[in-house]
Design brief:
Chain A has helices at about 1-30, 30-60, 70-75, 80-85, 90-110, 120-140, 165-180, 185-195, 200-235, 245-270, 270-295, 310-330, 345-380, 385-405, 420-440, 445-480, 480-490, 495-515, 630-650, 655-674; strands at about 520-525, 530-535, 540-555, 555-570, 570-585, 595, 600, 605-615, 620-630. By secondary structure, chain A is α+β, with helices and mostly antiparallel strands. In chain A, strands 2-3-4-5-6 form a five-stranded antiparallel beta sheet. A four-stranded antiparallel beta sheet of chain A has the order 1-9-8-7, with no helix packed on it. Chain A starts with a helix and ends with a helix. Helices cover about 60% and strands about 0% of the residues of chain B. Chain B is elongated. Classes of the chains: A alpha+beta (about 675), B mainly alpha (about 190).
Chain lengths: ~675, ~190
């Protein structure tokens, strides 16, 4: 099977090269036969890579430990669930997974793109073939062949890192990969539009949907990563500004900026240069993130092992940047705006400031991530850029962005008059101020959380006002009941009201993030029956009583479990179990250092987070860390709301596209006539 | 012998209570576990210094050298297998017991391990660029954006003024009526 897999990789490489050549040639020369050949090459490449993936999964499921990758990341007693995820648990397998999914997206782009955008497809085929072929070439020539065999066959494999044996880790990497990978499709459409010089609003429609798909996958990937870090790593937080986390956040920020500014191009024919630059930048940042994760150039707990594949990614990143921006520069004269900005107080201007902040945050995250390297170059001193730096720089920018999330929807397109602004802002601004003052009176003095929650109130009021007005209008015009009006309002204007739901999700996330400023924790050593107490930020006293230790074998590990009885102000709340796990292979040999499983009791107000540190001299006397994390539940709920809103925006329909296009075109035409 | 249901539950509850009471005694030495090695590194009892807020504040500014990327406090209370963070914690405690202030302890760590032991670079010299470049870049970009927007709006106003007679000729409405129309439109949900 491994030989078949390896041959499939070669086949994918050759077919990819063919697809790239015929795609570019067919598109530039307008030759239908070459265009058709490029399209078929995309399908063939997907078939070859899917076959290679099946071969690797087969080797994993057969426990073929003669394959180096299988021996390095699996063992005979690894649960079946994680045998699936072993495909992308290591560097080599994840490259194959990446190339396969990219070829799948490339095929979907060919199949799902409507007839109106067919003119771009040969170039799209070419660009996707280039990128996928690059990934295959890393496997073939970069020392990352997943089918490499060992000179001997071990009795059992090393097994999977215990921290990866978590449901979050099964879904988090593929979601993040799907986000990263699918950015290639909007990038391919952007390059296609530049090459074909067909830069009207039309290409943007195809790009926007794909960008939304990428954004949604990246959002889910980031949220799942946060959840995994919280439940698995045991440090009690969900975001540590680690370089790999930052690398995933960067394209998310630029794509979010694009999803806002693209509306200005669609409605007013403006910002064409900017939008193209954002799409190209997002793709380059996704490659940059891959470079960071796989090169080991910046220390990160999430990185794959340091290897020479990093150089491949760096070279590809530079080549892609030079080629894309050179092409971009040659097409600048074709990207002039069709309309002019009429007022500084307009929706268009607010979107531009929103973009400024998104890109500003992206720049500051990138700057902080790379600053250790820069410092070493310039002053010969290694420095650490950790959470204190990122929080200091990014929290004010994040608050400004939250404010704009509320301001943007309140300002009219083209020009907002003073009475209009007063009428629109009255309720949301009063609400935000009211929330701010209530918190101040209640004794909150920490400016960051005060501002975040106050601004959250402002944005929530903005969204509520928008929904209330829309529903009221439908109620008056069609006599619909308010619930029905709400459903139809969203259904008929999915993009707008789905966007507001996304904003609601962001508000919930921002407010939930503030909870971390109030977390309380303590460490205690307890004999069975002894208790430790901890006061929550809300003033209640939690008592944690150590009930005892039990040890047992389970699947591929020996478990040391500690049971803790919890009461709040003397009233029983429940019991929490936290574990130490020593993973073993099929022969009972230890495979990794013992890992910790956290005991979590999640509630609307706060999470109780209990970590078993270890035992004192091998007795039942246990060392614990007890943490109370306020508002963490709302992080996950805010994530659900954000994704739900994104799905509504993405859902097809919501009014005939022809009407929307006509309206967009009409707006541009009106501008041109003025 | 027949036992009624009520009596049965009373006896069962008393027995259960006795068992729970027994297991919760906690006054004697805790029993040995069967396999201490699988529970990770053997730890000592928590001391007052381990939970001292002043030490925690210092340790949160210093990075553990085990490669985890976490500060000393978070590492020693998260990865209980780490062999570096407990030692670094003891060093903090030892320096404090010598009467050193928080800043002196941090300076001692920097002298021994270099600047990279700090979780954030000190705000001096080239490091100031680290802190200020993003904010300055955003300010400059913001200034440029405002200037560009002003130029665009002026150009739009000039175009509108030039086109005004022609438009006025085509639209059968007075400026007052047009203004009223604009106000009415603004009252509609956008």
């Amino acid at each position: 099977m491994t030989l078949l897999g390896y041959l499939s990789l070669w086949l994918a490489f050759l077919v990819g090269l063919w697809g790239a050549v015929t795609g570019f040639a067919g598109g530039l020369q307008g030759r239908a036969d070459l265009q058709q050949s490029a399209r078929r090459a995309v399908f063939a490449m997907f078939a070859a890579l899917a076959l290679a993936s099946i071969c690797l999964e087969t080797a994993i499921f057969r426990h073929d430990f003669n394959v180096e990758y299988v021996a390095a990341y699996t063992s005979r007693n690894l649960p079946t669930f994680y045998l699936w995820s072993a495909l992308y648990a290591g560097q080599k397998g994840s490259l194959l997974f990446w190339a396969t999914v990219l070829s799948l997206f490339a095929m979907l782009a060919q199949v799902l793109t409507s007839g109106r955008h067919r003119q771009y497809l040969p170039f799209v085929a070419a660009v996707t073939c280039v990128v996928a072929t690059f990934f295959v070439s890393v496997m073939l020539f970069g020392g990352a062949n997943p089918f490499e065999r060992l000179a001997f066959t071990p009795v059992d494999g090393r097994g999977m890192n215990p921290q990866l044996q978590n449901p979050g880790m099964v879904f988090h990497p593929p979601m993040l990969y799907l986000g990263y990978i699918s950015i290639t499709i909007p990038f391919a459409f952007a390059i296609a539009a530049l090459l074909s010089k067909k830069l009207e609003v039309d290409w943007l429609v195809a790009v926007r949907k794909w960008t939304l798909v990428s954004w949604l996958f990246l959002s889910v990937g980031l949220l799942l990563g946060m959840w995994w870090a919280y439940v698995e790593l045991g440090w009690g937080g969900y975001w540590a500004w680690d370089p790999v986390e930052n690398a995933a956040l960067l394209p998310w920020l630029t794509m979010t900026a694009f999803l806002h500014s693209v509306m200005v191009q669609e409605k007013r024919g403006m910002l064409k240069k900017w939008n193209l630059a954002l799409i190209i930048g997002s793709f380059l940042l996704s490659i940059f993130g891959t470079f960071i994760t796989r090169s080991g150039v910046i220390a990160s707990v999430h990185s794959f092992t340091q290897s020479r594949v990093g150089y491949f990614f760096l070279a590809f990143l530079i080549l892609a940047a030079v080629a894309s921006f050179t092409l971009y520069a040659t097409r600048l004269p074709l990207l002039e705006a069709e309309a002019k900005l009429e007022s500084m107080v307009s929706r268009e201007a607010s979107f531009l400031f929103n973009n400024l902040l998104f890109i500003g945050i992206a720049f500051s995250v990138l700057w902080g991530t790379l600053f250790p390297i820069l410092s070493e170059w310039v002053q010969g001193t290694k420095v650490t850029v950790g959470p204190p730096f990122f929080n200091q720089v990014n929290i004010p920018l994040g608050l400004a962005l939250l404010a704009l999330t509320g301001i943007g929807p309140l300002i009219a397109w083209r020009r907002a008059s003073i009475p209009n602004v007063q009428r629109q802002f009255a309720v949301p601004a009063a609400t935000g101020l009211f929330v701010f003052l209530i918190l101040l009176v209640a004794g909150m003095r920490d400016l960051g959380p005060l501002m975040a929650i106050g601004l959250g109130g402002f944005v929530a009021a903005t969204v509520t006002q928008e929904f209330a007005r829309g529903m009221g209008a439908r109620h008056r015009q069609y006599g619909e009941s308010l619930p029905l009006a709400a459903v139809r309002l969203v259904a008929r204007n999915r993009r707008r009201y789905g966007g507001y739901i996304v904003h609601t999700g962001m508000v919930l996330l921002f407010v939930a993030f503030t909870g971390m400023a109030f977390k309380t924790e303590t460490q205690a050593t307890l004999r069975p029956g002894e208790s430790a107490t901890l006061r929550s930020p809300y003033g209640q006293v939690y008592t944690f009583t150590h009930l005892g230790i039990s040890q047992y074998d389970a699947l591929n590990r020996r478990v040391t479990a500690a049971l803790v009885d919890v009461s709040r102000d003397g009233k029983p709340v429940g019991r929490l179990k936290t574990e130490k796990r020593q993973h073993v292979d099929a022969l009972g040999r230890n495979t990794f250092e013992p890992s910790t499983e956290v005991g979590i009791r999640s509630g609307l107000r706060e999470d109780l987070y209990v970590v078993l540190g270890g035992l004192v001299n091998g007795t039942e006397q246990a060392v614990y860390r007890f943490t109370i994390n306020p508002l963490v539940w709302w992080v996950w709920f805010g994530g659900y709301v954000l994704v739900f809103g994104g799905l509504i925006v993405l859902w097809p329909g919501g009014g005939p596209p022809a009407v929307r296009r006509t309206q967009a075109g009409y707006a541009v035409k009106l501008e041109a006539e003025r | 012998m027949s036992i009624d249901r009520r009596r049965f539950f009373v006896v069962a509850a008393a027995t259960l209570g006795a068992v729970v009471q027994d297991s919760l005694a906690g006054s004697g030495p805790a029993g040995k576990v069967a396999d201490p090695a699988s529970a990770g590194r053997a730890l000592g009892p928590t001391t007052a210094a381990d939970t001292d807020a002043a030490y925690q504040a210092i340790e949160k500014r210093l990075k553990c050298s085990c490669g985890c990327g976490l500060d000393i406090y978070t590492c020693r209370t998260t990865d209980f297998n780490c062999t570096y963070s407990p030692g670094l914690h003891r060093q903090v405690v030892a320096l404090a017991s010598e009467g050193k202030t928080a800043q002196q302890i941090i300076d001692a760590f920097v002298a021994q391990y270099g600047q990279q032991v700090l979780m954030a670079p000190p705000e001096r010299g080239f490091n100031l660029a680290g802190y200020w470049v993003p904010s300055l870049a955003i300010l400059v970009a913001g200034g440029f954006l405002i200037r560009t927007l002003r130029r665009w709006t002026r150009a739009a106003a000039a175009d509108a003024a030039a086109a005004a007679p022609a438009v006025a000729g085509r639209v059968d409405a007075s400026p007052a009526e047009l203004e009223r129309l604009r106000r009415e439109l603004e009252r509609l949900p956008s």
